[in-house]
Amino acid sequence: MFKEIITISKTYAICKIDNVINDDLLNLNVVFEENNKKILGEIEEIISDEVKITFLGEFLEGKYYDGIIRKPSTNSKIRIINNEELAELTNYNDPMAMILGLSPLYNNSPIKININDMWSNHIAIFGNTGSGKTYGVARLIQNLFNMKNFIPFNSVFFIFNNTNEYDNAFKDIGNYNFNFHYKMYTSNLDNEANILKLPLWLLSVDDYANILDITEYSQIMIIEKMLIYVSLFSRNDEESNKYKNHLIAKAIISVMYSNQVSARIRDQIFSILTSCHTKELNLDVEVEGVGYTREFRKCFDIDSQGQFVERVLITDYIKRFVLENSNLNEEYVPTYFTIDDLEVALNFTLISEGLLLNEKSYNEALALKVKLHMIANSSLRSYFDVNNYFTINEYVSNLILVDNNKRAQIINFVLEGIDDRFSKAIVKVFSRLLFNFIKDLPNRGSMPIHIMLEEAHRYVQKDKDNDILGYNIFERIAKEGRKFGVIMDLITQRPTELSENVLSQCSNFLIFKINHPSDLEYIEKMVPNVSSDVIEKQKSLQSGTCVAFGKMMKIPMIVKMQIPNPTPSSSNAQIFEKWMVQWKNS
Hints:
By secondary structure, this protein is of the alpha/beta class.
């Protein structure tokens, strides 16, 4: 078949072949063999009776090593790789390997991947709609749970998707082994048993920044003060009530002695007492004067000189509530509270010193109030309604555990029926919460998890987090997560919309067919060590077939993914069956 070597360059060789050209030679691997030297190459082009073979690596004592130092000589013999060499390239004899798929170039020979090389690294999975991407992902996980000698009992996959397409593929995972369990949470409020819930007290300042979609850095300080106040007020004791009165009194005093007309001052004080009030300080409380009482709101009547008729009475009454030395520690301590408590705390934040008379700061705080009020009075409230207090450890345990204290290996979050902005905020909150939980475990890397993001371009974007928060949670996980065992799997048909910083940290890739030129250009530019040859290979792939490369693969290979069993619910609508009715023409 191979007659002689014509040319040898730094990266490839040109060889003569028999006149009868066999198109099946394309992409096959060959070995240049001479004495004890065995150089691996791949047939990249066939032109007339010549082939171009790209050098890939070298076999030494039966082991494959990527890259070459020595080039083959023109006297080397060339042959197609044998079964032993193919087994080495496909990890066939690795006891810690699982099936990835089949090789269509080598008679559907199994291609295996080492568990650590695959699942200890961030993964990117790209492909057009209809390329078999979802089927491939489902089969990949099913293969993991269908290993013969080992079972991934301690594995944890958190899947985030805007549809329930993976439910059918994983809900019966226990059929593989009775130790396996699956759990689904949904944003569909009709499914009361499995509605996703986020305890408000477990959320950080950054989480609230995402949920409330802040636009200015100064709003972070408003959120910080809101959380301090909700922590104090949730105690609902005499001391916290005194502090409420202190805040209201200080706010009224600051307005009373501002350089404004009396009518404007009265309106602002009424606004303060409408949103923030106690049994001692409200518009209806009876204030005692000398020999009479007056309703507090009546104290702000304006006389003919434009002054409050009871200015002295107002001042004397209010000053009794000002605490000169408060013993309350203004630090946020996680405790049980509701979204209504959070609204109250934000109202007190709005009247706190430094905000009320600063128009810019007040407007920024008011924007947060509007957003929080919208959540509290819409269906979104249901995701934060949690009846009992529990710690972060208890919360994560509840996420994973199923009935009878058995653990689920696959936890599927279906974010359907909510807009993209709120979906992205929810995924960020869960990702940050899980990352911080895993990072703070006493034994580093003791509980590795995967955060699998279907339609990842909806979440992993270059957004304003870096400018406002100083970081993006997905970028932080991408850079630091592997050290602690927090791994991301990015599944998308639009890689161009992904954050470049996140994609650059991915070490394993499954590329199904992609046609859009900008996506192809982006992949070639951003994906480490991807060659133009890999890009060209995926253009002609059949549905369900991908190009796999990265740390999990010794060389890039075309992989045919087997059909998952059962399949996910991701196929197209059956138009013929739904539209057509048999017509009998009489």
